[in-house]
Amino acid sequence: MDLRDKTFVITGANTGIGRANAIALAERGVGRLIIAARSLERTEPVLAEARAKNPDGKLEFVALDLSDLSSVRKAADQILEKDAAIDVLINNAGVAGVQGQTKDGFELAFGTNHVGHYLWTEKLLPLVKRAPQGRIVIVASQGHYRAKRGIDWDAVRKPSATLTAFPEYCVSKLANVLHASELARRLADTKVTTYSLHPGGVASDIWKRRMGVFAALLKPFLITNEEGTKTQLRCEIAPELANETGLYYDEERPKKPSRLARDVALQDELKARSDEWVAAFL
Fold first, then answer.
1. Looking at 109-225, which runs of residues are DSSP E strands?
2. Pairing between β-strand 88-91 and β-strand 247-250 as defined by DSSP bridges
3. How far apart are CA 137 and CA 258, in angstroms?
4. Looking only at Cα atoms, what is the longest distance across the chain?
5. Residue 248 phi/psi, 5° resolution?
6. Can you give the residue ranges of every domain in the chain?
7. Each residue's pLDDT tens digit, 22-63
8. Helix, strand, or coil here: 236?
9. pLDDT averaged over the chain?
10. Among 109, 143, 209, 221, which is least packed, fewest CB within 10 Å?
11. Are 248 and 257 in contact (CB under 8 A)?
């Protein structure tokens, strides 16, 4: 895919696979790249590297805190004001293994990884629809297979209940796969395609935050951020994937997601509840 006239929007590209993804797009000459992240200071090194690799590309930063729906609305409105089509929307940012609750009262992982991104996607969807072939790429995880009890609708409105917060993370990743599948059905008559994916076991900052000094022991068994971005990069720009939608990818290939992730009724219930949760911010 020739990226010179394309606009990409990515969340959380200040570190980890998001950073590797942003740099890979810059190396391929993307026309316009918008990085939405919490801190401009922490994102500046990424912006500088991307500019060095792609001096002719337009590079922009938008302040975004996915754990705060007011921040999501403000950031999305800034992009909407630009009134330009979005070719690829990449929902990359996420938290894992961190206990807590969002400003709007959701369990931290669920509220950040799903609810924040749900509002973000709904707000920006009109711009994605305007692209010749828009794509929505949602970074999920094989952790979604571990969410065997589905989504406890009461639990996602409370602080993290487990010591590791990993079960909550798995539920949030199940929501990501459900979201991508529901979007594909909803957008079947449009030129927009959707993709969810597992990037692999990546030696990213998520592991450092979760395991501290023990992350160093695990690192030899993990892949690099650059290797971890391969699957999402393929979903973003591979021309042959333009006719695929709603699938889940692992190691750059489609893979059958969990039974719950394929449950259409659960997809629809998640959408209905998510619509209620974000209604005041649309």
1. 135-139, 193-198
2. unpaired
3. 18
4. 49
5. -110, 135
6. 7-199+232-277
7. 999 999 999 999 999 999 999 999 999 999 999 999 999 999
8. helix
9. 92
10. 221
11. yes
Whole-angstrom CA distances from 246 to 43, 76, 122, 132, 258 are 31, 23, 16, 18, 14
Do the beta carbons of residue 106 and residue 171 sit within 8 Å? no
**Which residue is listed with tokens 């969810």?**
196
8 Å CB contact between 23 and 92: no
What integer pLDDT is reported at residue 129 of this predicted model?
A: 98
Strand ranges across the sheet with 58-63: 58-63, 32-37, 7-11, 88-91, 135-139, 193-198, 247-250, 253-254
Element (H, E) at 248: strand 247-250
State the Cα–Cα distance between residues 26 and 205, nearest whole angstrom.
22
Look-up of token digits 């805190």: 65
CATH code for the part of the protein at 7-199+232-277: 3.40.50.720
How many whole angstroms separate alpha carbon 171 and alpha carbon 152? Answer: 9
Enzyme catalytic residues: 169
Q: What is the pLDDT of residue 226?
A: 73
Give the 3-state secondary structure of residue 272: helix
Tokens of residue 224, six digits: 């690099």
For the entire predicted model, the pTM comes to: 0.93
How far, in Å, CA of 214 to CA of 98, rounded? 16
Residue 274: count of CB within 10 angstroms of its CB? 21
Place of tokens 């394309």: 6
What single-letter amino acid sits at 69?
Answer: L
